[in-house]
């Protein structure tokens, strides 16, 4: 039974986007695609324990989802005038050409990132439809309430239907205008894999990080001169290079400063550094992802954490904050400040973010560490408690719990 549950979970991670993309292409309706895919996975949960896991889970799920969608359209056709949709079930015309993008899931990402939708809505919708993230996971990525995010996604699908936004492959001319939203989606998908937020999931989801890298490589092939595409790919590679060193055998998260750097993937690091150098050589003003990649290049260039060039890291964060003055960037910048100017200066900077990051676990974890370094054990313990309360990642909980237990008693 445990093996079957693991097979369903693995199939959801690996096949959700493929099933949704196939159904969207066939039926032209995001609601139908999502609901039929969800019903197919629910059927798998019921039938696989008795029938066994099929040899090709993806094909089984796609076939089952297609049947679910057909059943729904037939029911609706009885109630309403849905002749056009019903005809679709028996249409043997050849599929439309793939156009500039020949990967089904990547085409769906570009479709969801239609300019008629607000930027944040595009990202949220695509994370749900393509990334397979739950509404709760997406809400945590945006630091908003789950109900509000659910409404945002529902409205986006309704707008696509009401305004008849077609499910269509974007032309080569459409790609540059839509690439910003697509990169935002892939960045968030990668982040969810890098440190999963959902309860009951693996602390690191390699399926998501690998898929984000694969799709970003495809975009890089389409837009080889786009600096932000290269920057995002470099950022992903330099982060993924550290994956095997990020969780200990005990299941506890290992921070950057404590990782075994000999376990890092030198091939990925070399490729990431090459991309960063290539972008620097162009002399073009870097964007957000290029700066983040450069920060990671500094970290992965140091053979020992003590060799880290923190002044360079801070200079890059100063550059980034002018492009992206978000509280999360400011929080990460404070970590560099702590190394250069001391934890007291960094804590003052972190405390200024309290109103905007009150429900963000990393804010409290950062604050807890700074308070620990300053010897304020009681305040640090309270901050660790709040960070633990706000995260569902098992590896992170184990790490934060250990650090809290190591605090000195009393003040």
From TrEMBL:
<dbReference type="GO" id="GO:0003677">
    <property type="term" value="F:DNA binding"/>
</dbReference>
<feature type="domain" description="DUF6596">
    <location>
        <begin position="178"/>
        <end position="278"/>
    </location>
</feature>
<dbReference type="GO" id="GO:0006352">
    <property type="term" value="P:DNA-templated transcription initiation"/>
</dbReference>
<dbReference type="Pfam" id="PF08281">
    <property type="entry name" value="Sigma70_r4_2"/>
</dbReference>
<dbReference type="InterPro" id="IPR013324">
    <property type="entry name" value="RNA_pol_sigma_r3/r4-like"/>
</dbReference>
<feature type="domain" description="RNA polymerase sigma factor 70 region 4 type 2">
    <location>
        <begin position="109"/>
        <end position="160"/>
    </location>
</feature>
<protein>
    <submittedName>
        <fullName>RNA polymerase subunit sigma-24</fullName>
    </submittedName>
</protein>
<dbReference type="InterPro" id="IPR036388">
    <property type="entry name" value="WH-like_DNA-bd_sf"/>
</dbReference>
<dbReference type="InterPro" id="IPR011990">
    <property type="entry name" value="TPR-like_helical_dom_sf"/>
</dbReference>
<dbReference type="InterPro" id="IPR013325">
    <property type="entry name" value="RNA_pol_sigma_r2"/>
</dbReference>
<keyword id="KW-0805">Transcription regulation</keyword>
<dbReference type="GO" id="GO:0016987">
    <property type="term" value="F:sigma factor activity"/>
</dbReference>
<dbReference type="InterPro" id="IPR007627">
    <property type="entry name" value="RNA_pol_sigma70_r2"/>
</dbReference>
<dbReference type="Pfam" id="PF04542">
    <property type="entry name" value="Sigma70_r2"/>
</dbReference>
<dbReference type="InterPro" id="IPR013249">
    <property type="entry name" value="RNA_pol_sigma70_r4_t2"/>
</dbReference>
<comment type="similarity">
    <text>Belongs to the sigma-70 factor family. ECF subfamily.</text>
</comment>
<feature type="region of interest" description="Disordered">
    <location>
        <begin position="75"/>
        <end position="97"/>
    </location>
</feature>
<keyword id="KW-0804">Transcription</keyword>
<dbReference type="InterPro" id="IPR014284">
    <property type="entry name" value="RNA_pol_sigma-70_dom"/>
</dbReference>
<feature type="compositionally biased region" description="Basic and acidic residues">
    <location>
        <begin position="75"/>
        <end position="85"/>
    </location>
</feature>
<keyword id="KW-0731">Sigma factor</keyword>
<dbReference type="InterPro" id="IPR046531">
    <property type="entry name" value="DUF6596"/>
</dbReference>
<feature type="domain" description="RNA polymerase sigma-70 region 2">
    <location>
        <begin position="18"/>
        <end position="78"/>
    </location>
</feature>
<dbReference type="Pfam" id="PF20239">
    <property type="entry name" value="DUF6596"/>
</dbReference>
């Amino acid at each position: 039974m445990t093996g079957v549950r693991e097979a369903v979970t693995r199939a959801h991670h690996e096949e959700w986007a493929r099933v949704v993309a196939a159904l969207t292409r066939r039926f032209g309706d995001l609601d139908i695609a999502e609901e039929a895919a969800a019903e197919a996975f629910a059927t798998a949960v019921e039938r696989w324990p008795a029938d066994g896991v099929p040899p090709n889970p993806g094909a089984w799920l796609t076939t089952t989802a297609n049947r679910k969608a057909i059943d729904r359209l037939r029911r609706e056709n009885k109630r309403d005038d849905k002749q056009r949709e019903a005809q679709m079930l028996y249409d043997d015309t050849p599929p439309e050409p793939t156009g500039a993008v020949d990967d089904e899931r990547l085409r769906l990402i570009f479709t969801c990132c239609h300019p008629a939708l607000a930027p944040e809505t595009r990202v949220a919708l695509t994370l749900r439809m393509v990334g397979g993230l739950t509404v709760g996971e997406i809400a945590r990525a945006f630091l908003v309430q789950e109900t509000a995010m659910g409404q945002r996604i529902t409205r986006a699908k309704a707008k696509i239907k009401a305004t008849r936004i077609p499910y269509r492959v974007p032309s080569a001319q459409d790609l540059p205008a839509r690439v910003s939203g697509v990169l935002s989606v892939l960045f968030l998908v990668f982040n969810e894999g890098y440190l999963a937020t959902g309860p009951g999931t693996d602390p690191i989801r390699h399926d998501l990080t690998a898929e984000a890298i694969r799709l970003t490589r495809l975009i890089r092939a389409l837009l080889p001169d786009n600096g932000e595409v290269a920057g995002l790919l470099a950022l992903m590679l330099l982060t993924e290079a550290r994956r095997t060193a990020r969780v200990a055998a005990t299941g506890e998260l290992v921070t950057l400063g404590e990782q075994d750097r000999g376990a890092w993937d030198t091939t990925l690091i070399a490729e990431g550094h090459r991309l960063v150098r290539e972008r620097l050589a162009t002399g073009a003003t870097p964007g957000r992802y290029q700066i983040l990649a450069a920060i990671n290049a500094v970290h992965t260039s140091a053979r020992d954490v003590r060799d880290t060039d923190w002044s360079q890291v801070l200079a890059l964060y100063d550059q980034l904050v002018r492009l992206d003055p978000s509280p999360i960037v400011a929080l990460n910048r404070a970590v560099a400040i702590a190394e250069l100017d001391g934890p007291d200066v960094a804590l003052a900077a972190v405390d200024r973010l309290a109103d905007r990051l009150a429900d963000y676990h990393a804010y409290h974890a950062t604050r807890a560490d700074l308070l620990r370094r300053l010897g304020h054990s009681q305040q640090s313990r309270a901050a660790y408690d709040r960070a633990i309360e706000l995260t569902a990642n098992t590896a992170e909980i184990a790490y934060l719990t250990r650090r809290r237990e190591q605090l000195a008693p009393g003040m």
